From TrEMBL:
Protein's name according to its UniProt entry: Uncharacterized protein
Residue ranges of the TM segments: 12-35, 41-59, 71-89, 95-120, 132-154, 174-196, 208-229
Signal peptide coordinates: none
Keywords: Membrane, Transmembrane, Transmembrane helix
Region called Disordered, residue ranges: 736-766
UniProt organism field: Rubrivirga marina
Annotated Basic residues bias: 757-766
Amino acid sequence: MSPSPFSSRPHLWRVAGVYGLAAVALWPVPVFGILHAEASAVLAGVGCLTAAVGAVGPFRSGAGVRALARVHLGALLVPVALLTLSLVWRPNCGYALGLALFLTVVPPSVLFGLGLAYAATGLGVRMPRVTLALAVLAIAGVGVAFDLGLHPQLFTYSHVFGGVLGPIYDEELAVRPGLFAAKAQTVLWALALVALGAWRRGGGRRETWLGGASLVALGVSILAAQPLGIVQTERGIQRVLSETVDLGPVVLHLDPETPGAERRRLADEALYRFETLSEHLGVRPDVPVAVYLYPDADTKAALIGSRITSVVPVWLPTPQIHMLADEVEASLGHEMVHVLAREFGMPVIKASPAVGLVEGLAVALEPPDGLPSPAALVTAGRAVEGDGLGDPAEAVRATMSPGGFWTARAGVAYTANGAFVGWLLDRFGAAPVREAYRTGRFDRSFGQSLAALATEWNRDLARLPVDPEAVAVAQWLFSRPSLFEVRCPHHVPADVRFARAGAEAWEAGEVGTARAAYERAVMANPFRVSALDGALRTRLATGGRATPDDFRRAEAIVDSLPDAAALVHLGDVRRLLGRDAEAAYRAAADSLAPVDALGRLILRQRAALTRDGLRLWLATPPDSVPDRLRVEAPVLAALRLSAADRPLEAWALARTWCPERLLAGLDSAEAAEAGRGLRLIQGTTAYRAGARTASARLYDGLDVAFADGGPRSLAALVRDRARRVAWRRSLAEPPPIFVDPTPAPDALAPCSDARRPVRRGGLRAP
C-alpha cells in the first residue's frame, strides 16, 4: 500500500466521465432521473463495475488502494451534481432522503469493486477485466436469486447495485435497519479483498490482521443475517406473527394480540375464499397455504420490506400470502387466486411469463366488492374523454409484458387485463386459459394471437351499453397516475405522515398524542381535511370546542375542492357551532358516486345527529360507543361496533332497527335505496355475529332489489355474501375457531313505537 506512482488526474477524468454519462443517461427516464433510490441503485452498479474493471491497469502499475479510492469516491460528486441539476426540470420532493440513500449505497459498492480488482490483480487472474466484469454480474444475479428466490421478502441488498428497498407499488419506501447492516457487510467484503490482495503482494502483519478481522466480522454478519435484517426467513416472520390458526388447507399467522372476534372473521374469510376459488379453478395445493397477516404497515415493512403492497411469492417451495390484516376482506380473494394459480404456472417461477395474465386472472376471479365489474368499467372507460384508458385492446397488448405492465397506470393495467381474462374464461373456458397462463403463448392455447383476441374482445365491448353507475368510477380509476407519472415519486408529505401518526394514536386511545400529531399536520398543511377532522375530534375529546377558525378553514377548503369529505367536515363544524348544516350535508351526499349507496346512507345518519350527539360521536375513540349514541344513532353505533370487531354488540343493535323510523322524512327513491343499504348492513352484521338464519333471510331477494333499484353493482356483492351463508351452514364439522362462544339471537327484533323525526331540507332532522 505504498504511495501510488500513477497519475491520478487522467484516471479521475475517465471515471468522472463514466459517472457523468450514466447520470445524464438517467435524466430523461421517469423516476430514475432524480437523486433517489432508483438512480442510486443504477449508479452503485455502474460504480462497482467501473471500479472493478477500471482499476486493473492502475493496480498493475503499482497504484495504491487509498489513491484509487480517493479518485473513485471523489468522482461520485459528478453524478450527485448532475442529478441535483435535474431539479431544474424535474422536482424531487424527497431530495434529502435521496441524497442519504445515495451516500449509503453507492460508496460501499465502489469500494467493493476496488477490492475485487485489487484481489484479482494480486492473485494474477488471467484476463482480469473480463473476469471481473463477469464476476460483478454474477454476484449481482446470484445475490438477487438468493434473497428473493429463497426468502419471503420484497427487498434485496446487493454488494454490486446497492439494493432494492421494496415493491414498485409502495408509495413510501421501507428504509430498514438491514440496509445499513448490509452496506457494512459490503465494506467488510471490500476490506477482506484488499487484505487478500495485499497478502499476495507480500503484505505484512497489518494486512493479515485486517483480513482476519474482516473475515471474522463477515462470518458473524452472515450467521446473523436474519436478526440483522439483511435477509428474512419464514421462521423469523413466525416469531413475530406467533399466533397460528390452522384451518386445514389454510394456516393463518397472526399477531398474538389479535382479538378472538377478529381471528374468527379473518379465518372465515380465508377458508371461504380458498374453498370457492379452488373449486372454481379446479386445483388444490398438496400443502396448506400459509397466510401471514401483519397488524400494521410498519411491522410489515420491517419484516419483508413492503408497507402496503400484498406479496404472494409463488416461486417459493410452499404456497404463502403476505398482507395487512386490515386488507383481508378487500383483497384476500385476489391474492388467493395468485397462490392457487401457481399449481398450473410455468416451472420454477410457478407463474405466467405474461404478467397481464397473472394479474388479469386474479382480477377476473376476485370476489365482488360493490363496484362495477371490470367489463363495465372498461366499457365506461371507452366513453370517458381525456387521458385515461384509451383503446382497451391496445392497453391489453401493451401491458401483457412485465415492463409494459409495471410502468403502466395500475388502474388501466389491472382492470383492462381483468376484463380481458374474464372474457377469455366466458368465451373459451378455463382449460385454454390455464395453458396460456403456463406458457404465455396465446396462439397455441386459443389458436389466435394476442392481438387478434384483444381486437375481438374490443368489438364485443363496443356492443355493450355504458353503465351510468360505472362512469364516475372509471374516470377516477383510469386517471390515477403511475409511479412514473407522479410529480414526486416515493415522497410522503410531512402533513400526511403527521396525520397518519395522529390516526394511529387515536385508534390506540392515546388522545393527547393524537391531538399533537394532528395539530402538527394542520400546521404543515391547513387544507388537508383528514388533519382538520382529526384535530377537531381530538380537541373535542380533550374538552375543547369548535371555533370560528375551524369554520373559516372548512369553508376555504370547500371553496377550492368541494368533495364529499370537505363538505361533511364543513357540515360538522357548522352544526357544532349551532349553525344550519343541512345544505353542506346534502351537497356531500350529492357529490358521492352513484354506486356509493352505503356512503349516502351513513351520511344521512350522521346528518341526523343532534349537536350534542355529533360532539359525542366525534369525541369518542373508534372502539367506544356510549349508550346515548346507541339510542340516538343506532346505525352509526352498530357500524362502529362492527368495525371494532364487537359483532355480538353490533348485531344486538342492528336487529332492533326499524327502517320505517330510520328512513322517515326521505322521499320514496331515497328511502328505497337507504332501505336496501340497511338490509345489506344488517345481513353482514348478523353473519358476523353467528346469526346465519337471520342473515340468509335478510339477503334473500336483496340482490334482485339492487339489480332493479340500484346500485346494480351491489347485487353481485349480495349474491357472494348469500353464498357464503349457505357455505357456512353446509359445514358438517367447522373448524373449532368458527364456534362462537356466545350464541347470538337468530332473528330480527320487532320494531317498537317511537317518535318519527320530521324532514328538513331532504335529510332527517334531529
